[in-house]
Amino acid sequence: MTPVLEISGLRKTYRSRKGARNALDGFDMVVEAGQVHGFLGPNGSGKTTTLRTLLGLIQPDGGRMTLLGREVPRHLPEVAGRVGAIVESPQFFGRFTAETTLSLLADAGGVDRGRVPEVLDLVGLRDRAKEKVKTYSLGMKQRLAVASALLKKPTLLILDEPANGLDPGGIREMRTLMRDLSASGMTVLLSSHILAEIQLICDSVTIISAGRRITAGSVAEVLARHDSGAVRVRLEPDTDQEEAARILREAGAQVTVETAGHLTVRDIAGPAQITRLLAQREIYLCELTPVAADLEDAFLELTGTAPVEGHHRQVDESALAAGQDGWGR
């Protein structure tokens, strides 16, 4: 099956008085149909440049891109009607209601206005549809942005930080919505700094750093590549933690003394060796638990940078004017 999105060797260089900066340096990405695909990277890594280039808002310096089997930007007008997108933080007219905002967007995009209450219901705004957008919280504006991207029932939905400003309940609802859209056959490309959510939502991920892809694959594959093999040990009450740690270190293990009664052990043959080494010294365990790798660990190891939750950026008004995708960001 042809990928819904494919990027090969994408390059973009920005030049200024300070010199040239390679925002994208031969970047590659593939998103298969029906997936929720996470697009991750530290600030300045090239994520937004990639998305804007895909949507025809930035001219690349080289490489090849396809959306829904058609090369872009050359054939973007042919597929734009099947792509919904939010890139960065869209702005709305504060004096308009959500219902009016979406109705105007529906008219502009040739979408039946009957779709408006459907998308408001999908994002949990139906009860607030007749209130002015200026009264909305940041999280509610994010929901409205997602609703606008869903108006034309896109085949591919591109979302940049859709959970920005949402409370924990709203994040859970957004997670459920993404999974439901995927189950209905829609493909979702999701950029986020909330890595725990990406791990819960996504089928696959691509991680970018300094304009290059540094890893890609299913979430399970990426985690397996970065499994540290660590084991968390809980000792019997009143056991000398430092003595237990010393014994394991003498055998070549890396040991971190955690909260009372707990050690994290790495670089050892396995739980059986931990048990044997300590039992020989009459130190006994209550629990041995493998420490599962998570996406944040993999991200930090690969990029050497910390993710930033709740990151917020200003809208680029020229992107709204482009209108390529319902919310042309």
Automatic annotation (TrEMBL):
Superkingdom classification of source: Bacteria
UniProt xrefs under PROSITE patterns: ABC_TRANSPORTER_1 (PS00211), ABC_TRANSPORTER_2 (PS50893)
InterPro entries hit by this protein: AAA+_ATPase, ABC_transporter-like_ATP-bd, ABC_transporter-like_CS, P-loop_NTPase
Region named Disordered: 310-329
SMART domains, sorted: AAA
Span of the signal peptide: none
Keyword Cell membrane attached: no
Similarity remark: Belongs to the ABC transporter superfamily.
Protein name as it appears in the record: ABC transporter ATP-binding protein
Species of provenance: Actinoplanes lobatus
